[in-house]
Amino acid sequence: MSKQVPTLDERPPDVGELTPPDRTLMGPGPSDVHPRVLRAMSTPLVGHLDPSFVEIMDEVQELLRYAFRTDNRWTIPVSGTGSASMEAAIGNLVEPGDTMLVPTNGYFGGRMRSMAERAGGDVVEVDAPWGEPLDPVDVERAFDEHQPDVFGFVHAETSTGVRQPDVSELTDIAHAHDAYVIADCVTSLGGVEMRVDEWGVDVAYSAPQKCLSCPPGASPLTLNDRAMEKVLSREERARSWYLDLSLLEGYWGDERAYHHTAPITNVYALREALRLVAEEGIEDRWDRHRAVAGELKAGLRDLGLEMNAAEECWLPSLNAVRVPDGVDDAAVIDRLLDEYDLEIASGLGDLEGEIWRIGCMGRSARRENVEYLLAALADALAEQGYEA
């Protein structure tokens, strides 16, 4: 019996005006966006090779260098979300036959592994439990055993709330073995101390919707000359045409040759978000995140809640909080969203259902947000019979 083919409905879809809820965003991203950034997105479009846009491109690159604390010439916003800048970094630096060392201490180390394998690399691991940083001793041991060509680490692990300390020690180990270092700065750029040049990082990538408080769509990436020389001297072209940095170099470099149509409005937004970073001052911004997140951490402890990360590797921009025994983590998340228009998130991977992930990033890192969240969370916990 043949299936009946549905007929085309001639009526246009009945879709009303866009009215998303006005949330307070305290999850792992996106964070609240500054009104100035939203206004920048409403300004007129120009062509992606218009002289005025070329000037904007120059300004965005200079502002990104300030945020990354680098003089790298090869500093650009990749057209796409943070995963695009991540894949641009790994997919260009890792060639078929290269060995990449990746961490096992969080969800995004696993994503590094997947991207390196797709790039044709051989992947080896340096182990650490979820919720702990990498130990430099283990990293050195892994280098001695595997002699990797590329080493990737996550500076701010969004899945566990752990900040990797001792970055310079890790990069020194890698460079002593003539390896390249890729740093995941998705949840740290613009909110947690990160010094690309001083700490010896060869490649760093990030996303705009975290500590930069910018809508996703144009994602920061920086490479030093040593890393870019490897990219430009590849024997085999990168497997992604869209993210091939040897081609993107023609658009974002001196030539300004057509490669693709850049997300113009997202570049406007990123420029304004980075202007806000520069006006505040990058070090003052790091201090603000630490101070406001410290008040959040103190309030959570007053509620009897335990942080997932130890103090020495606590990540101010992403606070992972242990779910108390007998409390339904999803019910708390739902109540905050339904009753308070307040977003937090559950755990990922090995920590799913065991932690809440509470962001304190960019414009969301304000004392009034922290006070609001603590009051709402206390209510949601009390509803389940939890006593602080």
TrEMBL record:
Q: One Pfam family of this protein, by short name?
A: Aminotran_5
Residue ranges, annotated region (Disordered) = 1-31
Xref: InterPro entries: Aminotrans_V_dom, PyrdxlP-dep_Trfase, PyrdxlP-dep_Trfase_major, PyrdxlP-dep_Trfase_small, SP_NH2Trfase/AEP_transaminase
Per its UniProt record, what CDD domains does this chain match? AGAT_like
Q: What range(s) does the Aminotransferase class V domain occupy?
A: 47-347
Q: From which domain of life does this come?
A: Archaea
Co-factor requirement: pyridoxal 5'-phosphate
Gene3D superfamilies according to UniProt: Aspartate Aminotransferase, domain 1 (3.90.1150.10), Type I PLP-dependent aspartate aminotransferase-like (Major domain) (3.40.640.10)
Which Gene Ontology molecular-function terms are recorded? Answer: transaminase activity
> Sorted alphabetically, which keywords does the UniProt record give?
Aminotransferase, Pyridoxal phosphate, Transferase
The family note in this entry says:
Belongs to the class-V pyridoxal-phosphate-dependent aminotransferase family.
> What is the protein name given in its UniProt record?
Pyridoxal-phosphate-dependent aminotransferase family protein
Which organism is the protein's source?
Answer: Halorubrum rutilum
